[in-house]
Write a structure and sequence with these properties.
With about 190 residues, the protein is an alpha+beta fold. It has two domains: about 5-145, Jelly Rolls; about 145-190. It is about 50% helix and about 25% strand. It has nine helices and eight strands. The protein has helices spanning about 5-10, 15-25, 80-85, 105-115, 120-145, 145-155, 160-165, 165-175, 180-190; strands at about 25-30, 35-40, 45-50, 55-60, 65-70, 75-80, 95, 100-105. The strands form two sheets. The protein has a four-stranded antiparallel beta sheet. The chain has a four-stranded antiparallel beta sheet with strand order 2-7-4-5. Strand 4 (about 55-60) and strand 5 (about 65-70) form a beta hairpin. The radius of gyration is 18 Å and the shape is globular.
Length: about 190
């Protein structure tokens, strides 16, 4: 399956010429579980299109705990957008929770393409819209939903999440402890 074509077409249909220009910037990559795609303090040059596996964006709090900000599943784009735009070091870690396959895209070369092609610029605007909406959704879920509701919503979005990643990763994403997650799962089984 041409995941790159599927990814692009789901966002904004590019002409064959612009699609081929974009595709020329793409390199297929495979990374093992625990591979850090972006580390804290590094200035990334690429963004990624995940085609298989699960990756995450997280930071480490002042107590040394991992705080997962975002989980990424296929087909989605990810990368440290703040660092890519500002060209300043990342404050987050992006890594593979499972073995992952993805496309790597040179961000600066893609920006050059958007400066030459109105279509590519519209595509980028659509990507930014989707990222913005995803962030707002996440903020609203953390502010409004209970931990149980967030867990059920996550399971609805990624039905096999419990089999894909460790429970402590799920708990971190839900902004709860692994013990709280265990209690939630137990209460759902008894109801």
């Amino acid at each position: 399956m041409d995941y790159f074509r599927l990814f692009v077409d789901n966002i904004y249909k590019l002409s064959p010429e612009v699609f081929e220009q974009f595709k020329s910037l793409v390199v297929a990559k495979k990374f093992n579980k625990k591979h850090k795609v972006v580390s804290i303090g590094t200035t990334p040059k690429h963004f990624y299109i995940l085609t298989s596996g699960v990756s995450r964006a997280y930071t480490i709090d002042n107590k040394g705990n991992e705080r997962i900000r975002t989980l990424f599943t296929p087909i989605s784009t990810f990368g440290c957008l703040t660092s890519l735009i500002t060209k300043k070091p990342s404050k987050h870690i992006y890594d593979c929770i499972t073995d992952c396959e993805m496309y790597e895209v040179d961000y600066n070369k893609f920006i050059e393409l958007t400066e030459k092609s109105h279509e590519a610029a519209l595509f980028l605007a659509k990507v930014h819209e989707l990222i913005f909406l995803k962030i707002i959704k996440r903020i609203n879920e953390l502010a409004v939903l209970s931990a149980t509701e967030r867990y059920l919503k996550l399971k609805q979005e990624i039905p096999n999440i419990d089999n894909l990643i460790q429970q402590y990763h799920i708990a971190s994403y839900l902004n709860i402890t692994p013990v709280q997650l265990s209690r939630i799962r137990k209460s759902l089984l008894t109801n």
